[in-house]
Amino acid sequence: MSTAPLQQAIASTRGVLANVSADQMQNATPCNSWDVAGVINHVVGAQHFFVAGMSGQPPAGGETNWAEGDFLAAFDEAAAATIACFEEDGALEKMVVMPFGEMPGAAVLGLAVTDTFTHGWDIAKATDQSTDLSPELAAGILTQARQMIQPGFRAEEDGAGPFLAEQQCVDGSCNADQLAAFLGRTV
Q1: pLDDT digits (tens, 9 = 90+) for 131-180
Q2: How far is CA 56 from CA 41, 79, 117, 118, in A?
Q3: CATH code, domain with 52
């Protein structure tokens, strides 16, 4: 397993972030508990979170307001560190203790890919950008998500669990929209 999917997810989300303007920061997003600034803070903070987890450190990066400054530079720096931590020898095979349980590094990598890509979709949707992001990557994440996400991972309300109930998606929707609907977003 390589970091190629993570690199693709980061590139996709970076492309979305590069097109966010200051006047869009308060726009509502498909993550009901976060506006665009909140999702930006999460997506940058998540990169720090994954690095900390892979390094055996307590979670980091959740308190900084990156949306107030040069969030694109902050994302680039954090994303580079995330890729580097997953490329270390043995990173994908080692067992990693995360706040929600112990898992192989490869599973943490999968979470990083899904989280980074999906929140890029959230920002694209909230800022009227195209949500047809990285079709092949989106299809691969959707295939894995359908195999991995059990009903117990779904919550009734936003913020109460990692995923909401699967939502309906119009036939013929792009792969990223199908993924978002599967993860509980209204498309």
Answers
A1: 999 999 999 999 999 888 776 666 666 555 567 777 889 889 999 999 99
A2: 22, 18, 24, 25
A3: 1.20.120.450
Residue 53 lies in a domain: yes
Say which residues have a Cβ less than 8 Å from residue 173's Cβ, sequence separation at least 6: 181, 187
Between the CA of residue 162 and those of 17, 58, 150, what are the distances in Å? 23, 19, 11
pLDDT in tens, 153-163: 666 665 555 67
Residue ranges making up the domain that contains 95: 4-133
Q: Where are the beta strands (DSSP E) in 20-66?
A: none
For residues 31 and 158, is the Cβ–Cβ distance under 8 A? Answer: yes
Q: Which amino acid is at 27?
A: N
Please tell me the total count of domains within the chain: 1
Q: State how beta strands 95-98 and 101-104 pair.
A: antiparallel
Residue 98 lies in a domain: yes
Which residue type occupies 129? Q
Could you tell me whether strands 163-164 and 154-155 are parallel, antiparallel, or unpaired per DSSP bridges? parallel
pLDDT for the residue numbered 159: 54
